[in-house]
Amino acid sequence: MYVLHSSSFGKNTDRLSKLCGTNYPTSICFIVVNEFCERFSFYGMKAVLTLYFLTYLHWDKDLSTAIYHAFSSLAYFTPILGALIADSWLGKFKTIIYLSIVYVIGHVVKSVGAIPTVGSSDVHIALSMVGLILIALGTGGIKPCVAAFGGDQFDEHSISERQKFFSIFYMSINAGSLLSTVVTPILRGDVQCFGGDCYALAFGVPAALMVVALVVFIAGSSLYKKSPPQGNILLEVCNCIGFAIKNRWRSSKRGPSRPHWLDWAEEKYSKRLIQEIKMVLRVLVLYIPLPMFWALFDQQGSRWTLQATRMNMAFVRPMLNALLILVFVPIFDLIIYPLVRLCRINVTPLRKMAMGMIFAALAFCAATLVEVNVVRTVVDPAPQGKCLLQTFNLVNDNLNVKILGSDLFPEPIHYLQDPDEYKMLSLGESSKNLTIEVTYSGHTSECLQKFEQEKTYSLMVFPSEGGVQFLNTQPRALNLTVGDATFHVNAGYSMSPNMTVDRGHLETEMGSYLDLGLLDFGASYTIILEEKSGTIGVTKIEDVKANNVHIAWQIPQYVLITAGEVMFSITGLEFSYSQAPANMKSVLQAGWLLTVAFGNVIVLIVAEGAGLEQWKEFLLFAGLLLGVCVIFSIMSYFYTYVDPDQLDKIHQEGSGKEEEDDNYTKTIPNEMKLNKRQKSTKL
């Protein structure tokens, strides 16, 4: 690695480091703060993204899940683009600057799309999608650059400091995630704007934090060690592999066979490069089963969030994973792993990752049990050929309701009686016109009503003395005039006052506070307001019972998935870094990030194609991951670990002369195998 910096810069950095009482370059402070703000920005936006799709854009849960994971997948495909730009064109510093600007623009566009007064629903969807694409390009593009740029700030002798930096860097990621997943849901739900939940503010604050991240990173510009582009090693690897395949195909019927198919590239590429690619490919083959873990892990922001919305939510759930990470990392490093070693169990990185898969599968088994209990408290939707119906009596007398061809309401309905549950009305077809007969106070009247399958209806019977009234089913308020009478009807299934035209305009004002009592999570209420003796009386009817499954039952699944993350994700990063040649660590990091992208693709396929009940889908994912874990364990058994210290030594000895390539190739199989003590490099 070639580093461009002056001697005066080094002296100034040393002075500042001594003043801070550390051996760290001062530039590290700017990088860590930048990462904290960027992760706050990203995870803060994702914390409310699924609910934004459901409640603001009014998408169903399957489409919301699909778009959520499509965005997550794109955010982990774009690191390849960022690595290409940084290595072959701009360098890490300029790549971070330019793509951070794209990142900020994406957040701003996303925030504007959440403002109800900006255009129609199609405009909101368009702005939201454009914003998400720009955010994915920004966050994915800088992802492979920021951590590596931080590592560049240390000289080759500061190995210990560089390792501690990666630990601090990872902690800053989780600190930003923890804070943002607490703050942005509060901004969404507790702050009201434009007459509802304030998604514009919930997305706007992460946008502001991304601006801060960019400003902080630029502020440290004069302190950074900036490496120039060194050529695209990823492109060179791909070219070498392509040449080997092409050369082998052309020479398949002539000439002696070669020990490895990559050896067919020896005519054009050095044996050293070929050997390094072999090492990388051995690790990439191990990565093939890994996307299934991420398919489960990333559902915390989609399916698990949807599960939580149907539970009794009494505390902030999204913070659990980030909080548990901050607790579990030191517990595993200082207590659990040493205790396992005391039992003389060899804790290899691949064994940790396999155990992480098992814990993630157990987390989804726990989620399945919770889902089964949640479903019991939710009103089942009407199946095909049927609809749901309930009746409210507002006529201050006993009410008899008959639907010809059905016996739904055999008993009289008392005044303001709380319906026990929705009644299932059989139609026998997709829609049907049925006659409803209503009898009260000795009077009988009939009406013809069209019912459609899989829908829910409420029949409200109230006295009327004649006149005109309007029911508004539009998403906007209406002002109507009939003769001298003006009717204002609020938006969304609102009823106007009943008036006769010759009485003129009627005004009603309700300026006092009304006590509605406890409105519990998951319940559905009908609130009836009646004027009695000059005051407004309140009658609350509970149409759907409140959720009785407390959200605390999700804690076990979060504990299990977080334990799996500590063993799988952090260990995977260490494994990828330690098993790669020095000049190909970015290649393996890109491969590692791609496993996350493909994991989200798996969720997209299952969510859109399986069509299973939620608990069955959870169980399917758990079973698939356990099966993949078995395959991964078998592959791991045949993997030979590489000693990174010996690998670096071989790199230094093997550079320079072409004739040394043969010696390099011969020494690789023996010198790079780890002994029984099993070394590992910890980030």
Task: Describe what this molecule looks like in 3D.
The longest helix is centred in the N-terminal third of the chain and has 35 residues, at 79-113. With 683 residues, the chain is mainly alpha-helical. A three-stranded mixed beta sheet has the order 5-3-8, with no helix packed on it. The protein has a three-stranded antiparallel beta sheet with strand order 4-6-7, with no helix packed on it. It folds into three domains: 1-231, Up-down Bundle (Growth Hormone, Chain: A); 270-377 and 555-683, Growth Hormone, Chain: A (Up-down Bundle); 386-506 and 522-544, no CATH class. Helix 4 (61-77) runs parallel beside helix 6 (121-152), helix 7 runs antiparallel to helix 13 and helix 13 packs across helix 15. It has helices at 7-19, 27-47, 49-56, 61-77, 79-113, 121-152, 159-189, 199-219, 233-250, 271-287, 291-297, 303-309, 320-342, 349-376, 555-578, 585-609, 614-637, 644-654, 660-671, and strands at residues 192-193, 196-197, 386-393, 400-403, 423-426, 431-440, 443-452, 456-461, 471-472, 478-482, 485-489, 494-495, 524-532, 535-544. It is 55% helix and 12% strand. A hairpin with a 2-residue loop joins strand 13 (524-532) and strand 14. The protein contains 19 helices and 14 strands.
